[in-house]
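the three lines:
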Amino acid sequence: MVFLMWLRGLLLRRTGRIAAASAGLALAVALPAALGMFQSAAQQSMTARAIQRVPVDWQVEQQPGAQLKGPLPGVSRQVDFASVAGLQSQANGQTLTTGGARALGIPADYAATFPGQLRLLAGTPTGPLLAQQTAANLHAVPGTVVTVHRPPLPDAQVTITGVVELPTADSLFQKVGAPAGAQPSAPPDNVLLLPAADWHRLFDALPADQVRTQFHLRIDHRLPADPAAAYTRVAGAARNLEVGLAGAGLVGDNLGAALDAARQDARYAELLFLFLGTPGIVLAVLVTALVARSGQVRRAAEQALLRARGATRTTFVRLALAETLLIAVIGAPVGLALAAVTGLTVYSSARLTGPALAATALTLLVSCAVVLLPALRPVAAARRRETPAWSRYGLDLWLIAGSLLVFWITSKTGYQLVLVPEGVPQLSVDYWAFAAPALLWAGASLLILRLARLLLGPGRPLVARLVRPLAAGLSPAVAATLARQRGALGRTATMAALAVAFAVSTSVFDATYQQQAQVDAQLTNGGDVTIGQTTATEKQLAAVPGIAAAEPLRHGFAYVGADLQDLYGVRPSTIVGATRLQDGYFSGGTAQEIIGRLASSPDALLVSQETVTDFQLRLGDQVRLRTTDGKTVAFHYAGVVTEFPTAPRDSFLVANASYLAAQAAPGDTTYLISTDGTAPHVVADRLLARFGPSAKVSDVESVRRVIGSSLTSVDLDGLTAIELAYALGLAVAATGLLLVLGFTERRRTYALTQVLGASARQLASFIWAEVALVGVLAIAAGAGAGWALARMLVLVLSGVFDPPPSSAAVPWAYLGQVIALGAAALLGAGLLAIRAARRPPLTVLRDL
Amino acid sequence: MEAIAVTADELYRFYRAGDEETRALRGVTLEVAAGEIVAVTGPSGSGKSTLLTLLAGLDEPDGGTVWITGRRMSHRPPAEQAALRAGKVGMLVQNGNLIEHLTVAQNVDLAQRLAGQVSRKRRNGLLFELGLSGRAGAWPSSLSGGEAARAGLAVALANRPALLLADEPTGELDAHSETPVLALIRDQAQTGTAVVIASHSPAVRRFADRVVELADGRVR
Amino acid sequence: MSPLVSCQDVARTYGRGASAVVAVHGVTCALRQGDRVALMGPSGSGKTTLLHLLAGLDRPTAGTIAWPGLDERPRGQVGVIFQGPSLLPPLDVAENVALPLLIAGCAEGEARRRALAALAAVGVEGLAAQLPEELSGGQAQRVAVARVLAGSPRLIIADEPTGQLDSARAHQVVDLLTEVAGRLDAALLVATHDPVVAGRLPTHWEMRDGALREDVPWSS
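prediction for all of em together
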């Protein structure tokens, strides 16, 4: 009852202070909760995307001579494969023949059962279907009669009813049971798909070594949200099935492979949580601690009164606990609600699980502790004149040195923070790397505190000179006042600087991440919009509204020795500008220089570093490539290319398009389109409408959503928004709130100054000097520390960037907002303090 | 009614500020019987407040002993001192005898609870006698000087103390307000409470049964 | 000789309505160069309020107050010594003494020189680099006197300057104030309720319930 009465009084009469402490605690709790929701939503969407990307979860291959017995889990369909010698068609009186081909027998409902496995480009899916490339080779359209060479059996004929694309050809034609780490086998060039009945009629009589049977499965998709857990479950189930089949079948685990990739991204999402979230959380707790510490004088007086009434230490502890509980009971739900609102608006989910839940609970506990401590022991701020121990021993410098050391060690491993050993369920995460930024944060905080103390100690004459414009003749007194409060002022300035550093580092990291995601998408897609498999000409394309330019890029394949590589033909005069080639894509020169070599010699060839090493090439060496139709074309090695728009990550070749055309090397032309500012997906729709469904059109926006790192796909924007909003809140709290609380404790000084005859202007100079000091330190030190941290984060987390950034991006607009809001908070604090200081001095002195 | 409520035996207390030592008390001996009112007078700095603090067990003497109703107050664990103080001693300090975020009635309640003797009837009676019935729900900051002094006295008497210690209880009051407060203290003394008042006021000197004058830490 | 300060029927009321407190009313008085006045009266009688009005730190709610012997703005030209700590905690002793000079527009070097001279004059030049919290009560009051001296005011007002001191030190401070006032040829008004202190000043005023009686006869 005493406690209820006490708390009611605090709520009614100490509303401001309780509200400030609760707000600090709410902020401290909300940040990990919101970040946890981000992480949880990110994981969920990574798992969901992995599942969505895979049309056929498992391909169970029946082993030669064995017969699969017993029911298979989930939904299964039988698919038969036959290897045939070739396909043949007659077109315009010309006979066209392919090399070896695969014929698949699929049940009628196969496409419906596994959506995404087949994409119908022309005709109807009811009869024999040709893969797009095969149809192109045979000049076949629906209705074309295709002859199947199937030695030792006689030729058979089928009438094609449709043309399909096989988006997952790689996994469809995988070698099931290939040892881990084996080179993936290339999918066949020619594919014929037959209704199951037709396939059995045609191929049942083939020798057993030319046919095999698979069962395609879709398993239960109720999987854990965490990709790592989902991977463990799926991979375990696959092995379990293999054991159950007792050698009769092997499982090709497509879903497991997709989840395996996703779990790496999930670990990176967790690391982002750690790297970007922790400083903000610590900062919020520190602000709460400083708020809770203020008002100690009044607390001490209250405890004296209670003691006079016979209160014991137990009573104080209970009252302090009750007050803490009150603040927690107000702050924690507000914080969680804030996080939930953030979660629901940004991710439409407010789930909080596992480590994030623990982090939130831990933050709540620590916040309660920092609120409880000053309530327990209201020591009227003891003034310590000696240098703190950390400063004497140079702890700040040791921390920074330690940070750089760890950073250097991490850099030697190439910042591989997440290691994914092939086929092992456990990921290893290099949490050590976290120590570098953590130590830098700690070291920078203390260093800023040291600088502030130095400035206000030995640097006092400098401060006096700096405040002269504000304080005129009073500047020595103002400087002395600032100097004697260097403990409190140093803490406030350091908190403000850390808030700025947090905002700077987070926003620079986020902006860099966005920049690289855009570069990555550009690199994958080639241009804003890319159109291939079309008969449209450059001129026709250029006439489509919204298109600024269309850059032709010829694509085919060629053998380098036994290695089949992508071969790109470019127009050197325009390619650099049209596709924004970056210097980082080449080695041994700038993009302009290397492409220039193509322009100056028609038979120049750019190859990958791997090829240079494998074949011991030196500049000017002749390279002979064998094209897919058997011709040999001679080139000269002219440079190394590492990345190229639309090119795969491994080895590929770049040459002059005009030279390839002259040598009649097979290939078709893709156009990389730059828009005139019209949204890429709008242009993509126009192109599809104009050049028909067979054209392959993709735009950079969709690509960015789909490609590689699912971190991008879970929308880092949400994380960015949370972080940046909190950074703003912290900056305002640290600058304004702490200053106001500080001013409150100096009311006596201001009142006495007035009694001694100070004018309003002179009095204000004390306050503005303090405001200016905190502001300047916060911006200068905060920007410096923030920049250093951002650089370190971008390097340490380079694993999430693809490709690694050549320079960090600075979001000036956002930083401008932070500084403007921080300045507004400072200004507000100053004006409040001046208004309070102008109260009649006696009233103030009487109250104190 | 000749029971001794409080005994101070040869009390010494020294303070040190900078390199200057203040001898606040230099061998003060005092005995107050139940129902007796003693005024402790003397110039500021003569040791009045220090004496009261030692009698309340809020500070330890550097020499000497304090006894409250026959039980030792000085030199024992803080928890026992607190219990003795809660049960036997009422304290009225010079200014700010009230917790600012509790109402007048709640301040009295709090003192009663700490003493473990909750009585709504006594609380209302106290407030009535002190002319504060209408101000029971008021916040301390809204009270006038006289009201604040009377409310402070109500808090000090909340636990029916055997010993009431008052440091300048009428310091903030004009002559009109001084009288009813002193009358209430007199009433309280008649129920057997020993009263020690530190004050400059001539009215208090006249009012007390006995005057003890301190000068430079000694009884003059 | 025109007075340094004169009050005509001055009143000061705090608060409004039912809870309004009349601290000072109907006060008419004047202080001239060379006056040495002790202002007596119990606590709460309005002494402090009157001092603040005379120093120009507060405005009367009725009546007029004027400083014909001073420049327009009295604040800064009246040396004020407060009850309790009146030094600025963040400034050291020399800086505290120099502050009013800096406020008045004195150059830094000159202000420091005069501050040190004033400290020497009251015999505490050795404390120049100390912080207020490191001083004893007596030292702090001497420094406050030095601060007044350094400002060379024509009117010195002290509110219970000996409140925290034992009697020997109280004498010293009052004598020091008198000496300083003499050196500056200023008027001195000291509020006190210590009869010993009052006895060292020739003129006595008394406040009672907000009203002022001048030239009270005095017998120590």
